[in-house]
Amino acid sequence: MSEQDVRQVVKEKYGQAALRVVAGEGSACCGTAPSATSCCGGETVDPITSGLYDAVQKSELPETAVLASLGCGNPTALAELKPGEVVLDLGSGGGIDVLLSAKRVGPTGKAYGLDMTDEMLALARDNQRKAGVENVEFLKGEIENMPLPDASVDVIISNCVINLSADKDRVLSEAFRVLKPGGRFAVSDVVVRGEVPAEVRRNVELWVGCIAGALEEREYSGKLARAGFVDVDLEPTRIYSIEDAREFLTAEGIDVDAVAPVVDGKFMSAFIRARKPTL
Fold first, then answer.
1. What's the chain's average pLDDT?
2. Is 53 in a helix, a strand, or coil?
3. Element (H, E) at 12
4. What percentage of the chain has pLDDT greater than the value 70?
5. Which end of the chain is more exposed for a tag (fewer CB within 10 A), N or C?
6. Pairing verdict, β 267-275 and 230-239
7. pTM for the whole thing?
8. 178 vs 180: CA distance, rounded Å
9. CA 238, CA 47: separation in Å to the nearest integer?
């Protein structure tokens, strides 16, 4: 699949997810059930997207911002944002992480959300209006070509979006460009630990459709270093067991017990930190 094909599939999938949220049908960005309420797990509690935001955080936001959260982590809770900082959220979706970031950086700071999907941008801007948050701006664009000047951002966050890009090197190069010297890269993403047989990985990626293209953890670190980042650190936040995927894989006709030894514990959500060197 070409880079353009990947981009079109992602745009269509997340556009449909936004429309389902607006219609009150849940997000279901990766599930097959039309009324599914989670990103990748149909009607059941999803092991990737569930339990990422506490009750206090959710109470501060419109319900549609919470419902449209399709990530695998909570980067705003881990990025140590400070008042006055400028934050950029890559693939901002319904805006949950942008709105939470805006509250953390306060009125002297600013939070940008970047998304390529018109439906998600419309939903995010509506959520901003409902939340009454002013220090936010949602931008239309691709994470491979960020529409911001060089050295204009203090912190880049993202919630399981970089893995969806077909050109991750370009994304990381752009992230390095827009960060100020000393700026921080602090994203949640799904990564693979160790080798997974290709045919098994393809099936597991059907289960966790939101992690298509996930990098092996050492490969991710290597790409960050080649982009110019230093102090690269990858911290697992949630490791997925074969039991998390049993129902889905069984429905796909896969012998779960047979693949368990080569899949169990190989996929994980992680918080990935790095820093642009100070001049």
1. 78
2. coil
3. helix 3-22
4. 70
5. C
6. antiparallel
7. 0.79
8. 7
9. 9
Backbone angles phi, psi at 209, to 5 degrees: -55, -25
Scanning the structure block, which residue is given the tokens 């699949």?
Answer: 1
Q: Pick 3-275's CATH classification: 3.40.50.300, 3.10.450.50, 3.40.50.150, 3.30.300.130.
A: 3.40.50.150
- 164 secondary structure, DSSP code: G
**Nearest Cα residue to 187 out of 198, 199, 172, 177:** 172
Q: Measuring CA to CA, how many Å separate 231 from each of 58, 92, 189, 221, 236?
A: 32, 25, 17, 10, 16
| pLDDT score of 49 more than 50 | no
DSSP E strand boundaries for 130-252: 136-140, 153-158, 179-192, 230-239
**Segment 82-97, tens digit of pLDDT:** 999 999 999 888 888 8
Q: What is the pLDDT of residues 122-137, one digit of tens each?
A: 989 998 999 899 999 9
Answer whether residue 15 shows pLDDT above 90. Answer: no
Neighbours of 151 (CB within 10 A): 13
Mean pLDDT throughout 225-253?
Answer: 85
Which has the closest alpha carbon to 72: 272, 269, 273? 269
The rounded distance, in Å, linking the Cα atoms of 187 and 91 is: 11
